[in-house]
## 1
Amino acid sequence: MLELRHRGSCPGPGEAVSPPPREGEAAGGDHETESTSDKETDIDDRYGDLDSRTDSDIPEIPPSSDRTPEILKKALSGLSSRWKNWWIRGILTLTMISLFFLIIYMGSFMLMLLVLGIQVKCFHEIITIGYRVYHSYDLPWFRTLSWYFLLCVNYFFYGETVADYFATFVQREEQLQFLIRYHRFISFALYLADRISLLSQAGLEFLDSTYPSASDSLVAGITGFCMFVLSLVKKHYRLQFYMFAWTHVTLLITVTQSHLVIQNLFEGMIWFLVPISSVICNDITAYLFGFFFGRTPLIKLSPKKTWEGFIGGFFSTVVFGFIAAYVLSKYQYFVCPVEYRSDVNSFVTECEPSELFQLHTYSLPPFLKAVLRQERVSLYPFQIHSIALSTFASLIGPFGGFFASGFKRAFKIKDFANTIPGHGGIMDRFDCQYLMATFVHVYITSFIRGPNPSKVLQQLLVLQPEQQLNIYKTLKTHLIEKGILQPALKV
């Protein structure tokens, strides 16, 4: 609670609290000064001073309501709370895995929509926590601006994806050519808006009377960053900047990471499925090992996490990732890069599998020869990469969950939301996935992928015909010198 204290005396009921006199002003001031102070005091009283609260003033958010279906409550009513929670988590986990398999069967586009939906829900859960914890009910335009920034950042990232992977489709649509060519400028303009925010109301009225359409277009540009500046209210400055930073960190966590997930998906569904399923496997097996064998606490941030669960989850995840990589590497549907075919107007996954997904024979190290009693083994190279992915998912990935636990403890909440009974919110299930997405993207760009042919083609297609012809001649000469093309015979 905010208390206004003055040295020597406290204001009585209904008595205005006058601000201290400015430097160079008399303490009494004139009538105009008193009138101004009264107006400022009325505004301060109207909005309240939320900025002066300390961490101890952060209220504890009321616990979420139980959303467990009644049929499950009745079926498990005779069990202890520990086993009841175990069965609820197990049943809901199997349900979510089954739905995930269904979406995989429906294809890459549905997986992209799933990732986008999860991103929006995670953003909503984190923003709602900030809204409740900081009591941002009086902040003007806070929620509107938060969702507007989400729209802008998604427009930027997914516009980049369209430019990279749909170059041939973009070239057929004149409007898309304009949007792609000036994509980054449009994104920047949407975020910062234009200088119309500096105009006064009188200037806008002048524009309205002189150039109505120009005024409308300029007013439409007052968005994003400028809207935030214009929405600043006295006595809320610090709180508004708290929430501005909260929104942008949330965007960094959710939008950029989900964009990387989709980038990984375009490399081939296997780069999407193996990392995600490894994190899921680690989460499940660590929970099971900890539930049945856990005795030694792992970290204070998560008292229920144990070393037994952590170690058991690690070995289980590495074995699972190795087997999953072997099974998925056999099918083009999972290993081929996702491409958009304009002739059939859909995403396709047809290709000649790369070297990563063709069987190779490897000589075993001496200690494995003695264990397996054979000298050579046939593996897909991707299986070796899967060991690195699974190791990260089981050793480093859980720290995303520990980070989320620390965040929840800081704001005195048990879960991000109560979307999934027994599991909490969507963010509670995907806190480790976002960290994993970044690692997979860095791993692909560092060790797997070379230059992107689609991006090179997209840049070539926007050049002038003379420039394209010069590049064609240079490339032709280079290929002839390397012996890939035969020189034309002179007649």
Note: Residues 194 and 221 are 6 Å apart (CA to CA).
## 2
Amino acid sequence: MHTLSPPYSNALSYLHRGSEPTFRVVPTRITVKCGYGFEPASFSQGVGSTRTDWQSACAILSSKVDSQNEDSNPTAAGENIAAVNGHKSAGTDLNLVHVSGEKTLPPKPLTISDLSPAPMHGSQLRVAYQGVPGAYSEAAAGKAYPNGEAIPCYQFEVAFQAVELWIADRAVLPVENSLGGSIHRNYDLLLRHRLHIVGEVQLPVHHCLLALPGVRSEYLTRVISHPQALAQCEHTLTKLGLNVAREAVDDTAGAAEFVATNNLRDTAAIASARAAELYGLQILADGIQDDPNNVTRFVMLAREPIIPRTDRPFKTSIVFAHDKGTSVLFKVLSAFAFRNISLTKIESRPHRNRPIRIVDDDKNEGTAKHFEYMFYVDFEASMAEVRAQNALAEVQEFTSFLRVLGSYPMDMTPWSPSASPSSRESRI
């Protein structure tokens, strides 16, 4: 696979030390590069202490403002005392005790819902994704957080680090495709990093064949794109009569940018229609994927989990390991089946730290070697439900390791497949 080195314009390297921004006439964006020579910030220390300091500072500032306003305007003291972290609300709403001759009820004790931040979906967030502008991951980030600021990252791990180091607020990363299967790299990174899944989004994939303006199909000698995109369009390219070399690169939008930046008139790229618009390419053929039912599932990651609810469909993702063979796996799955909890996915990955399990046989003729696996499971239930809590309590009895990756709302938005092969608009 070739690695493209696109000339990013006005790119701010957040993590790569010693790099200098370059300026070229291409779309302006902020790019996060991979960092080396340091350890990622600890989740348990960085987030907790920073949030506590922030809340303490807000409380101190609020108290100072209240005292100043009370001294300057005594008549508004009752209103100002109800300001919490800069937000005003009526004193009766907070059941505050007013200084008067009448006896009033004491204030209500705070509950966990009072301290929990409201969901930030749709607010102005910095959302990290892997790739360059025009990538399908950028479209998924825009669907998940329509008003967010998308931050492109060179690698998947950089997106994880960007959230951990507070450079980004969220990360939107692919975990599986309906044709290509699971993105194993991101499953491994979910276990390595301490981020939490807070949502999911499903995005139909619509491939286009892109080339420089004025280029005709007979001029083409090669087509470049991500390996999965090339595989998903293989039969269509043959039907279009393109007997050209096919080369794999890092991502689809990067392929489009590479063609535009290097003025390659003999090369086409498979990417999205937005990539054609961004990099000034023409669409030779639209909707060239072999299967119109092509969809990629993305997960949204954050530093802190969201509070599970029961008022809408929720999904929970876990990962576990065991060391007693397939019989234990059957018991684990039975814990969900007994409580009528549907599993939507089960994925096994070799245990990185302990890949081989050695078992002595009864006849002392040698040892049997088996692969050790980590199992990733998604099931349709919220951690706020008692049945889910009881299921995990039972699973924990049979496993040597168990971790909840997140309990989050399911993507319930309507989905329609891409254009069918018969309805493609071809300009070749």
Note: The two ends are 27 Å apart (CA to CA).
## 3
Amino acid sequence: MSGFKVMRAIRVSQFGEPSVLKLCADVKVPQPGSGQVLIRVHACGVNPVETYIRAGTYARKPPLPYTPGTDVAGVVESIGDGVTAVKAGDRVFTTSTLSGGYAEFAVAADESVYKLPDSLDFSQGAAIGIPYFTAYRALVHKAHVKAGETVLVHGASGGVGLATCQLARMLGLRVMGTAGTQQGMELAAKNGAHLVFNHREEDYIGKIMDATEGQGVDVIVEMLSNINLNHDLQMLTFGGRVTIVGSRGSIEMNPRDTMAKESSIIGVSLFSATPAERKECAALLFAGMETGRLRPIVGEEYRLDQAAQAHRDIIQSRGATGKMVLTM
């Protein structure tokens, strides 16, 4: 433990606005139990779902007080009994933590800890977990994509969106994306999208349909379904699928829009993935990153004491450009 007994960490003692994220300097460093790994955190990803949990609007609420964060990257400090996949000193990233990732140290179950490819730095490592595992789950486990199909990534310039574009291109799909800024459109185009459309333009749906010669798209990966779902259903081809990755509220829709095309609306929850599904995903992602075909794009970086500002920005931003990350 190198003499460490306490650490800096973000703590949430009540649900509410970003201001409830408090930096504490006297948090006890957690100890790894059997099958657990203690990681010295160098960077931690910031995800929209963490803002919903903090606000108390998410279906799953952690007991208070808690430390947010799942996607950490760092170096293994120590391991508990029975851990064999990693050892002290290994560079690693996680898909979840047990103690929370907005901290200088975090404990994670060994099954959620993976070696970080040497070609990636820690900020990039913190951009892998939820974005790439969610992209794989949406495309492969839920939409069951096949090479040659057309996928529309709605919100292609954010962390999950860019991961989806890269992965879809690697899987042999025709990739279309949407973004709200010119910078975001260019970023999506550089990361796998064959065509990119500005979803702030009134006629963008018509342009997408023209690009498919009126046939529509096979799969839509949707980051903001409370705004886009009704339009998505109009853009699908027969047997098309919409996978719901993100939503910030409710929406009124007509179920008949799914009937004529026998289309499907499929929810995506990484929390529901089985260990076997995670292992399958990790194997493909590691191969893609090792060869350079998958490369996490880091957006804004914040210090740990700027966590509240990061939570404000991730919701209020008019156009994401990569994965938001906290650094220690």
Note: The longest strand covers residues 36-46.
## 4
Amino acid sequence: MGGTKMLPENTCGVKVPQKLSWSSMIEIIQDNEWRTFQPVVTFVQPRIVEQPDAASLKKQCPYRKKLEKQKKKALKKRSDFSLSKYVKLARIKEKENFSEKENLNPERLKALINYLDSPVELEQLYAAQALGQLGVPEESVTSALFKTFQECNSLPLQYEAARSLALLGCLDTSVVKMLIRHLKDASLNRREDTLSALKVSLQAWSMTPELEWYWIGARSSLIRNLRRLVNLQDPMDSVIFDAALCLGYLDKYNPIAQETMFMCLSQDDCQRKIQALAMLVKQMAIVDPVVIKTVIDQLQRSPLYKHRVDAARLLATIGLEIIQEEGLEEEVFNVLLEKLSEEPFLVVRQAVASTVEELNIKKRVWDIVEKQLRDDKDEIRKKAVIALGVLGIRNKNLFFAMLEMLELDTCEDVRIQVVRAFSTLGMDNMHVRKSLVKKAQTQGILARECSKALESLDKVSDAQKEYMLQSFKIY
């Protein structure tokens, strides 16, 4: 205990696309078995057989229609009681973010590229900055920026073009040397601006598999100048911290960068602290009791919900084995159990539920939470329902117990949380709908919650139908 634990080196930072969180709502029954009867004959007269068209094949006899109807009914009945998909985590309800680059008009890119040749320097500067911020690493963009960087005589324009090239992943020797030149600049704003671009570029570089790493020009010179920045100034200065981050991305074994990250763990700046934790755990693969306890503290007390999400994910990255070796399993377990029900933000509860699953402690949590559903205290039952809204429902008995709570529980707050849990889990189930519809016709807060839940389920249903239509669309 107390020693530094090295996590297995993650050489592949590529994110795996998330699976769709809904299953098909349309059951397709295929029955291609046609009954045929061939009489025994000694001679078959040659003849032309009229082939049935697609329309005639769709026409079925009454008996077959009845049989197909019974099959569909049986399948629907089975699917209503199939709760396996609700065991998975609830859908993360995020606002739709349509970034500018996703909806960027190609003509807009062409216009910005043309502005790089404008006789007005201000327009050139604007175009160079905009092309970097848009983050579209197309050949036409990088080529135009590199041409401007090499051919222009204006130092400000050269810098903006170099900075944008770095943001787009182009770290050519001449580009890196230009950025190093501005790291030595006496202007604090210019050093901060340069480091912010390098930090984005180097982070993206470090997250790619090592076999796919692209070349970084003047790398040794860049490391030397970053190290100089870290050594010569106040360790808690923002420039020093960003320089240490860049140094860590370039060389995860650098002792100066590691020391700076550990020093930041004792500071009050929560933004800097979560970045230092991510660098230590994910990039440098360094974990000890101090790191784990700091991650737990971030999950419990960070004022920003995004940092609490990051802290939950860091615990999953650390893994149960190292947590157990440091004797912190019970402390981590209790914090995660508490956050499942007492955390006000759904996205944080979902991150915690994901961590619970990855740490292989979900069954233990389920056992505790399901017992709490039968507690005499309203507040405990309410917290249990909130937790199940992100953990999922693992069996039929639990589902019907919650459905019964929606009908009979004496506490309205508990019933409201049951409605929200069904909505969050996307339980488009005939039993759930029947209960929600009946209560939505009454008055009060419960009726309003039921109406909102029905609207949410309808949206999911429509999305599923749209997905099915797109799946069968012929291009």
Note: The beta strands are 5-6, 286-287.
